[in-house]
Structure formats: structure tokens, C-alpha cells
Amino acid sequence: MITQEMIIADIISQHPETLPIFKQYNLDCYECQIADLETLGHGAGVHKVDIGQLLISLNNVLEK
């Protein structure tokens, strides 16, 4: 399960199938060096993305 406290780079490296979701939400985290240090919750806030919806989308991908 992905949570908002997780580091973005860890999510992408452990679950590469989530990459299209990051792109869908216009989060170019896979290209950003800060992704190695930034939590998903912080990144979503900075980019004004609804963290609840993002988490639902990311976790739905894991369930498939």
C-alpha cells in the first residue's frame, strides 16, 4: 500500500507500474532529483494535487 509518507523515488522504483499515474497527475517526479528525498504528500501539496485522489489512483494500480 502506498501512503503519503513514502518517498516518491521509492514508490517509482518499487512500483514502476505507477509511473503512468504520476504522468496523469502532471507530476514529473521521475525526472526530479528531489524525488529521492520528498514524500508523496509534500510533492502533491507543492503541485496542488489532491493527495486523496492520487493515493486512490496509485493504490488501484497496485491492486491490478
Describe this structure in words.
With about 60 residues, this protein is mostly helical. It has one domain. It has four helices and no strands. It is globular. The two termini are about 15 Å apart. The mean pLDDT is about 95.
Question: What keywords describe this structure?
Answer:
64 residues; globular; mainly alpha
Short characterization:
This protein is an all-alpha fold. Helix content is 52%, strand content 0%. The longest helix is centred in the last third of the chain and has 13 residues, at 51-63.
Overall average pLDDT: 94
What integer value in Å does the Rg equal? Answer: 10 Å
For the largest beta-sheet, the strand count, sense and barrel status come to:
none
Helicity, in percent?
40-55%
What's the structural blueprint in terms of helices and strands?
Elements (H helix, E strand, L loop, with lengths): L7 H7 L4 H6 L15 H7 L4 H13 L1
